[in-house]
Design brief:
Length: 423
């Protein structure tokens, strides 16, 4: 059975700029390009603010992904390629938050669920990837239920708030401006709602969305067109929109510095970035982005080291179960086709026998039932030993034996059938 290969570009090796350059399109675009390759039978893509991951089911997955990365113009220095077992183990760790910048974060599990849905709807996810992602979602839930891996700051958004609190030595009496009320902006606002500060301004291109969030979590919704006025009043600006361009430019920030005594702290957690990097050249401006949140992550890592060990124990246990599940699938796919062939032959020959007997005397329901039971019993007994032998071969990874069985019974390899089904 053709297996999974994956390509991972993440914060572990790539900077914010390199992540932005890796891919500018939508997930659906990547899925379309990958699935159009004749050697890709299934595919799924995960894209977040600090990672881009591609999973393919292909007889030459590593080669396909290597050439795809080359086509994207991505440096080999920031890319990791995983084989089947490495991909599975990585995916389980990812769902539990152990591969995240903020160890134990909850957001990644929701993103994996979204990816699962997008790939299913696009028709690019078949049985092999579905098995992996279903298990990953299950393990991610188990890790958070049975351990405290997600205790404390568990998202980029909450880490951004912690960073602001640390750099300003407290947020009490401060004015905070949050730009963007999408998923990340909402998480920032939730994290701020538990802090003692002066006011939180919420700015969004759609004023109504900002108003709903402000009413729910506290704060003041502001018109995006009046952004300049509120940047002048803010001590901290945290920007988290999904805009494809800078929403906070150097000229706007420069105006906000007039008549200001304190420094202005800007935290950009958007991908692509919201804040023009040139603002850092302005006196009195402190700019931080996702790369700077590594400090928060390192602190969380120390706090959660014991919980991470518990999660790794869960992952090891579930990983073994997943590998065994794939082993069973190798044999079951072959056996399903073999049983189908034998049962089709059984039915054909039984009908032929009934027709021949019917030429001599009337064949009733009782006689047909006896012949049906007889031929079914013969088929099952003939298949009993091959079933045991093939499942045993799958358990011990005897690919050569399974391939020989496919050739002997003229059965197409599993992945080829999946490619046909996906089209």
């Amino acid at each position: 059975m053709t297996e999974i290969s994956s390509m991972v570009i993440s914060h572990a090796k790539a900077t914010v700029e390199e992540m932005e350059d890796a891919w500018q399109g939508e997930i659906e675009d990547i899925l379309s390009q990958l699935s159009s390759h004749e050697l890709v039978y299934e595919c799924a893509v995960l894209k977040t603010c600090n990672r881009l991951e591609m999973y393919v089911v292909s007889p030459r997955g590593s080669s396909v992904l290597f050439h795809f990365a080359k086509k994207m113009g991505v440096s080999s220095r920031i890319v990791e390629f995983y084989d089947h077992e490495e991909s599975l183990y990585h995916l389980l760790k990812l769902s539990c938050g152990l591969e995240s910048m903020i160890i134990g974060e909850d957001q990644i599990l929701g993103q994996i669920k979204d990816l699962y849905t997008i790939s299913k709807n696009a028709g690019t996810m078949g049985k092999i990837l579905e098995t992996a992602f279903s298990k990953a979602i299950q393990v991610g839930k188990r890790a958070r239920t049975e351990t405290n891996i997600n205790r404390g700051s568990v998202s980029i958004a909450s880490a951004a708030v912690d960073l602001a609190d640390e750099m300003l030595k407290g947020l009490q009496g401060r004015n905070i401006l949050v730009i963007g009320t999408g998923e990340m902006g909402t998480l920032v606002t939730r994290a701020l709602s538990h802090r003692d500060m002066n006011v939180v301004y919420l700015a969004n291109r759609t004023y109504e969305k900002a108003k709903v969030l402000a009413d729910e979590l506290g704060g003041e919704a502001v018109d995006f067109m009046s952004l300049n006025r509120y940047t002048q009043q803010a001590d901290v600006i945290i920007s988290a929109t999904s805009a494809p361009h800078y929403v906070l430019k150097k000229a706007t920030v420069e105006k906000s510095l007039k008549n200001r005594n304190d420094n202005l702290l800007l935290i950009d957690i958007a991908s692509p970035r919201d804040i023009d990097p040139e603002v850092e050249s302005l006196p009195g401006v402190i700019l931080r982005n996702i790369d700077n949140l590594r400090v928060i992550n390192e602190r969380n890592l120390q706090m959660r080291m014991e919980e991470a060990k518990k999660v790794e124990t869960i992952i090891d246990e579930e990983y073994k179960m997943l590998i065994n599940q794939y082993k069973r699938q190798k044999a079951d796919a072959l056996l399903s086709e073999l049983y189908s062939q034998i049962y089709t032959l059984r039915k054909h020959e039984m009908d032929r026998a009934v027709n021949r007997l019917g030429a001599y005397h009337t064949i009733g329901d009782v006689e047909c039932e006896v012949l049906d039971d007889l031929t079914r019993a013969i088929a099952n007994k003939v298949l009993a030993e091959p079933t045991k032998v093939l499942r045993n071969a799958a358990e011990y990874n005897d690919e050569a034996f399974l391939d020989s069985a496919c050739k002997l019974f003229n059965i197409k390899p599993y992945a080829k059938k999946e490619k046909e089904n996906c089209k």
